[in-house]
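Feature request, filed as a ticket because there's no other form

It would be nice if the structure record came with a short human-readable summary line next to the tokens. Right now we just get the raw output. Example of a typical job, pasted below so the devs can see what we mean:
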Amino acid sequence: MKLTKETGRKILRKIYTGLGLTTVALVFQACYGTPIGLDVLVRGTVKSKTTNDPIEGIKISVKDMYQYELTDNTGKFQFYVPQDEICVIQLEDIDGTENGSYLSTEISVDLSKDKMDLGDVFLDDAE
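Raw output as currently delivered:
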């Protein structure tokens, strides 16, 4: 079988297309992580223990990980974490006294489910 220039170009085009799609997939994974199927959605609402009001600007993170979220103006947060058996969620008031001052706390969470709703999480006022 003799290859013509056109046949050779078609073969090269298919190879380049495959390499391009593979590159896109690898870049996507590097930027956004692995598909969510192995992650657990953790969510909840942070409130003041004394006033029961939602707290904005609380940093929510998993201990020993760089990923974090800040609570919105209704005190809500949500993020995905790798599915381990147990992880420690840290809550820190990082905005100073802008909306009150609160003590940091840690919560141990069992991540055996696909979703973990922590419900209302209460923080003590700093004195």
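Something like this underneath would help us a lot:
The chain has a mean pLDDT of 82.
The beta strands are 39-48, 58-62, 68-70, 76-82, 86-93, 105-110, 115-123.
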